[in-house]
Amino acid sequence: MLKQKLQQKLLQRLSPQQIQMIKLLEIPAIQLEQRIKKEIEENPVLEEGSEEDPYEVQEEQKDEQGEDHQDEFSLEDYIEDDEIPSYRLNTQNYSTDDKREEIPFTMGSTFREHLKSQLGLRKMSEEQEVIAEYILGNIDDDGYLRRELEAIADDLAFTVGMEASYEELHEVLMIIQEFDPAGVGARSLQECLLLQINRKDLENPVTRLAHKILKNHFQEFTNKHYDKIIQRLDITEEELKAALEEILRLNPKPGGSMGDNQQRLFHHIVPDFILEENEGELQLFLNSNNVPELRISKTYTDMFESYNANKSSASRDEKDAITFVKQKLDSARWFIDAIRQRQNTMLLTMNAILEYQKAYFYEGDETRLRPMILKDIADMTNLDISTISRVVNSKYIQTHFGIFPLKYFFSEGMQTESGEEVSTREIKKILQDCIQAEDKRKPLTDDKLSAILNEKGYHIARRTVAKYREQLGLPVARLRKQL
Fold first, then answer.
1. In sequence order, what DSSP letters do the residues of 6-44 get, joined into one string?
2. Pairing of strands 273-278, 396-399
3. For residue 132, what pLDDT band results from cuts at 50, 70 and 90?
4. Kindly report the CA angle at 427 between 414 and 348, in degrees rounded to 5?
5. I need a labelling partner for 416 at 20 to 30 A (CA). Which of 39, 60, 326, 437 fits?
6. Domain 413-480 belongs to what architecture?
7. Sign of the dihedral defined by the CA atoms of residues 390, 395, 397, 403, in that order
8. How crowded is the C-beta side of 153, counted as CA atoms within 13 Å?
9. Quick one: pLDDT band at residue 415, thresholds 50, 70, 90?
10. Quick check: pTM over 0.85?
């Protein structure tokens, strides 16, 4: 049975301007520049320049003096016939005798091209060449063959229709492993290092000892059980140290030295804020060097006001053009307001962070960082936590002691034995200093590090020490051992 009834609901809806503001707040400075350029291309009403542009003032003065001035755009530009004569689309400013030489673009050969070029220098049968090309296609950017030869044999049978045995594939792989750079085509780290050490002079006692360690005692080498290696090979500590130095000269990623230039990632950082210290005072600026100023085109504004005054007598095409211009004008105003609101929100947030961590920003001492979470800044600025999170995300600040992401200044806190609240970053700094000052022959375990921190007044369990150590990218004590 159908029924009709009235129901009231309270819903929260975001306006288009709020949505635009949120999206602009999330992006860093380098993407903001690209976003503004895209908006200028899509909206002809937007122009680069300040509100009072000298060029515009000069044009207005010409109009007042009665000089001939023709508008760059008029309403007829939008309602004229869509058919454009072909002669307006062609250029005739060069003759047939002119030479049009194309400049070729060249670059160095890629890693796989380098391997394939060596393939042509080997005497191989047609079947072996097909197998070799397929194996080369399975070698990754580090130079390793991560797939099993049996799986490659199955792929050859399904894709090429070629039946190849394991022995045939292995024979071709041995040829590829003779290619440069040394170690290419290896199926494991041990094989990669052995391929490289085999090309050295094995008559040298140090090289021969390094080869023995890699071939027969690789597990002890990776786990740094140096005492076992010394005992089993009956060598001195100095001999082992020389052999380890020889091994450390090898390249664990032979393909990395010849990686494709187009695939290398460079993380280019453009700071969103610039902090300067001037006569003991901190001055904060928004980095707007590459962000152009925006204004609304006076030509379109005047055109809209002129034709809107005669709207009652306008034709249908003119009304459609007026509607189009009005939409673009509103969109341009929204975008300019969103940019200004973004700048105000970012400055408000960064000034709050600056005030909260003032002691740190004066000296740059990591131990002076106070515990700070998003809610602390949200309370200071009367903004929502989600807004603070958007401002902090992917943003950087350039200070007089380095460039840092804004997330760097946020950390949890804990109380010391004296009741003082300190940042976990300060504890990590002390932990890092303890590990750097330790005896590398007998590195400090997590239990000993926990005891040292407890003596300094920081009550931290062993599991917490392990967590902080992993966050700092430091291995366990056994892997930090050195001779």
1. ----------HHHHHHHHHHHS-HHHHHHHHHHHHHH-T
2. parallel
3. confident
4. 70
5. 437
6. Orthogonal Bundle (1.10)
7. positive
8. 14
9. low
10. no
